[in-house]
Write a structure and sequence with these properties.
- The chain is α/β, with parallel strands linked by helices.
- It is 26% helix and 27% strand.
- It is built from eight helices and 16 strands.
- The chain has helices spanning 4-10, 57-71, 88-93, 117-135, 172-180, 196-204, 228-239, 323-331; strands at residues 18-20, 24-30, 33-38, 45-50, 80-85, 143-151, 160-163, 185-188, 207-215, 251-260, 267-268, 279-281, 285-289, 292-295, 300-304, 315-322.
- Strands 1-2-3-5-4-6-9-7-8-10-16-15-12 form a 13-stranded mixed sheet, with helices on both faces. The chain has a three-stranded antiparallel sheet with strand order 11-13-14, with no helix packed on it.
- Helix 2 (57-71) links the parallel strand 4 and strand 5 (80-85).
- The longest helix has 19 residues, at 117-135.
- The N and C termini lie far apart (60 Å).
- The structure holds zinc ion (ZN).
- The site of zinc ion has 3 residues, from loops.
């Protein structure tokens, strides 16, 4: 198979579906689903996904570049890897999604919508990661899932990660990798959700993170230099080389409120141009939904992913508190 991305965009199965290099065996499993097994005993099991949103092209190009280097035998591989291009139909169309946002359908939520391509895709991806994790379970390998995205809007932190609700402490090595990947902020979610990374963490006990790596542009129009840190950190992780030196410690935020569009009367008082991590003072009215009012509770809250146009029942935004600021307030 010459190119994972071109193969996926073509919608055709490759003529050759498995092969090897001096370092690894590869296997095409399905459209946009591809497994790599190192010849040596793997150190851990890693799911790398991109293109869950079809217009978020830079991470797709990064992942494809790394897979290409591995397939050409230019890079060593120390881990079992499942590489996923999440929504091939939306990638072809250059759209975030066609009918349903796949990243809201995991954890079986696809069963609550009509039968369509995106419901089937979410189901197929759930099956793929389940069988991948279960293959390695007799060896107790650490499991990581990195889901690569770019944000729709501007952001006060260009690159950041959202870590799903996790009752366990996060492994130090995982936080260290996210820091080496150049993330400026880490957001710790405190509620369950229908994202791919929540499924990996909640159901399969994987350390997982949704990485937001900058702004979405068209294929070929991406300035890949701004993605250099994550690209280098991924290459180092896969080949077992030392991670690049960390530039800064990411700021830490915790989700304190979710704004949900529950009815047709829903109104979001945060305009469409608002950047991610824009601050709001205590008492500010953020949204109203009939009798329900969303008001800033903490001294300061920061908005993430505000979106007034979401479908009924879905998230119209998250409100965050900065962890260090809270700790400071407690000490004072
Ligand atoms: Zn996305």
């Amino acid at each position: 198979m010459q190119d994972f991305l071109q193969q996926t965009l073509s919608g055709e199965a490759p003529q050759r579906q498995s092969g090897d290099t001096p370092y690894l065996r590869w296997q095409w499993l399905d459209h946009g689903i591809f497994q790599l097994d190192p010849i040596d005993e793997p150190l851990q099991a890693l799911v790398l996904s991109a293109g869950i949103h079809g217009n978020e092209t830079a991470p797709v190009e990064i992942l494809n570049g790394i897979i290409g280097a591995l397939l050409r035998g230019e890079m060593a591989l120390r881990h079992r890897v499942l590489a996923i291009l999440g929504n091939p139909a939306a990638l072809r169309a250059g759209k975030r999604y066609l009918r349903y946002d796949v990243n809201r359908l995991f954890g079986g939520r696809w069963q609550q919508i009509e039968d369509c391509d995106e419901a089937r895709r979410a189901r197929r991806l759930e099956q793929a990661i389940e069988s991948f994790w279960l293959q390695g379970c007799e060896r107790e390998q650490p499991r990581w899932h990195l889901d690569l995205h770019t944000a729709i809007r501007g952001s006060w932190h260009t690159r950041f990660g959202v870590l799903p609700l996790n009752p366990q402490p996060w492994p130090d090595a995982f936080i260290h990798w996210l820091t080496a990947a150049g993330l400026e902020a880490l957001v710790f979610h405190t509620m369950p959700s229908g994202t791919f990374t929540h499924l990996s963490c909640a159901t399969f006990n994987a350390a997982s993170c949704t990485l937001e790596l900058g702004k979405a542009l068209l294929f070929g129009a991406n300035d890949l230099t701004q993605f250099a840190a994550v690209q280098q950190a991924l290459a180092a992780l896969l080949s077992g080389e030392p991670l690049p030196a960390t530039q800064q410690t990411p700021r830490r935020y915790r989700v304190v409120q979710q704004i949900t569009r529950l009815s047709e009367r829903f109104e979001l008082y945060i305009d469409a141009e608002t950047h991610n991590f824009a601050a709001f003072p205590q008492g500010a009215l953020l949204a109203e939904d009939g009798e329900t009012r969303y008001v800033v509770q903490q001294t300061r809250e920061y908005v993430l992913f505000p979106n007034p146009a979401v479908a009924l029942g879905l998230r119209a935004g998250l409100m965050l508190a900065e962890e260090s600021a809270q700790t400071e307030a407690l000490l004072r």
